[in-house]
Design a protein that fits this description.
The chain has about 290 residues and is an alpha+beta fold. The chain is about 20% helix and about 30% strand. It has one domain. It is built from six helices and 20 strands. The protein is globular and about 65 Å long. Strands 1, 5, 6, 11, 12, 15, 16, 19 and 20 form a nine-stranded mixed β-sheet that branches. Strands 2, 3, 4, 13 and 14 form a five-stranded mixed β-sheet that branches. Strands 7-8 form a two-stranded antiparallel ribbon.
Length: about 290
Amino acid sequence: MSLHLFGAVLTAHGVAANNRGESEGNITTLQKILWQGQVHTTVSAEAIRWALRYYWQMKGIPVNRLWNDEKQDHEWQDPKWEGWSKPTGKTYIDDDLLGYMRAEGAKKEGEKGHTDKRRGVFEITRAVSTTPYAGDISYNAVSGEKGRTSLYGAEMHATRYQYGFAITPESLRKRERILDAIDAVIGLGEVAGNHSRFLYDFSPESVIFRVTDDPAPRILYCFKQAEDGKITTHELTQKLIAGDLAAEQMFIGGPIAANEELSEIEGLNLFPGIKKATETVKQAVKNKLA
């Protein structure tokens, strides 16, 4: 059976603002979603994917969609994905993990269009805030030409975000790229933001990995924040007790590893720090993939 790596990520508490470049009037807005009956803010999977690709680029790992900071635009290294047409052709990590698609219309009437595509192996959920949005907005003013003053505002949300991911390494052209995917999740810094006024640390404060041959994740959106701010994983604990999750398949790092519910379950791989948990799960993946 195929090996699968699933993950659930919880960020540190921070102030989110300007996580997209859209506005309503003179207010820069946050994306929102109705989550469990209340309005929560959210960050798209596309924004997380962009940040992952930029992480690999900054680490010196060749990517096909290269970001040019000066031009504020992408530059393609292989715009036609010609490397994928040969079993030993050159491929890039972002195409291998995140997939690609290019659709061309028919050139002549009666002909069919053509599509080059690859399904993303590194699947990522939308990030959702752990607390409802209360409607906070900051108002600011800037002086312009001829003494004119422009007023603008930005929605803000002091919260954490959680999101999940899934990878099936056997579907990769190069299976070892799963290790670079894990490193990118752990090293993820800024996600989204349309200018320098915005900074929100998207690296995990707590993380849960699951290495298994079970094709269902079963751990997505498993973090809950109580009114006192405490983070719990009650639903995850119940799945472990019920036998739907095998304790030895779980690698849990960060403050959540000290949760009393989890510490009482035998066989869990618990680590007080993120990096130790990451190195251990990477070794477990290497062993599984031989």
